[in-house]
C-alpha cells in the first residue's frame, strides 16, 4: 500500500511517499480503505515538532480525519462490516498509522458510519473540526449535553472566526440545533463564507464595533462563545457573554498567553471551558460522533463553497504541499485525494 510517512520531525520535506505491507486488523480493530483524508493544523504541528510527545513511534503516517470503506474487520467487531461507508476521528492519536495512507487500521470506536447520501469529501472534513465544535457547544453549565434539532432553541451562540473549519462546523451545528448564530470575521470574503455556512449575523471586527453589534442581537449577552483566539478576544468575550454563560476555547490563534481581569469574569459567574480532543473523555467523543452523524444525515452539515467551506484537493503524493497550505492559513478545508 502507498502511505505518506516521516521518521523525524521538521518541515514538510520530511514527508515521503512510501510502499508498506498491508496491515491486518487485530481484535476490536477495523481496516479502512481510504478515499479522502482531511488535513488539520495539528497534523503539521505534530510533524513540525511543535506539539508535546515528539516522535512517539519510529515512523508516523499523519492524519486524524478521513473517509472510505471498511476493508476488513478484526475478531469481535460487530459494529462494522466489509463494504460499510465510514468516516474516521482521531485516527493517528496514539497510533503510528493515520489517514495519509491508502489503508489504515483503527479501533472500531474511531470508525463511524457515513450516511449514504454524504460524500467522502464531507466525511473526511468533519472529524476534528465537527467533534471540536460539538464539545464547544455542549459544555455549558445549564445547556444541553447533546445536539439535536431544538437543543439550542432560544440560545444565541457567538462563533469567533466563522470562516475556519471549526467555526464553520460550529455555525452549522448550532443552527441545526436551533440557536441564533452570530459570528466574527476579518474580511468581506470571510463574511460571505460565514453567511453561506448559515450564520444569522456576521460582524467584521476590523471595520465595526463588534461588542455593540453583538449586543444588538443579544441585549442580555450571548449564551455561548466558541473562541479561537482567546488572547486577543477575551475582553470582547467578557463584555458580550451573559451571566452564567460559556466561553469554549479550542485554539490559541493570536497568542499563547491569556491575561484577563478576574473580577469581570467573577461578576458574571462565567464558565471558561478549554478543550482539545486528544484528552477528551471517550463518552464525549462517542456522543459527538453520534450527533454529527445525525446532522450529516439531516443534511445540516455540508462542505464546499456554497456551505462556506471551500475545498482544496491535493493528491496523496503532494501531502507536503497540503501541510504547507494548512500552515499558510488556507481558507477552507484541505483534503488529500487517495482514491476515486
From TrEMBL:
Record protein name field: NADPH:quinone reductase
Q: Which sequence ranges form a coiled-coil region, renumbered to this chain?
A: none
Q: Which residues form the Enoyl reductase (ER) domain?
A: 10-336
UniProt keyword list: NADP
Tagged with keyword NADP:
yes
**Gene3D superfamilies documented for this protein:** Medium-chain alcohol dehydrogenases, catalytic domain (3.90.180.10), NAD(P)-binding Rossmann-like Domain (3.40.50.720)
Question: Sorted alphabetically, which Pfam families does this protein's record hold?
Answer: ADH_N, ADH_zinc_N
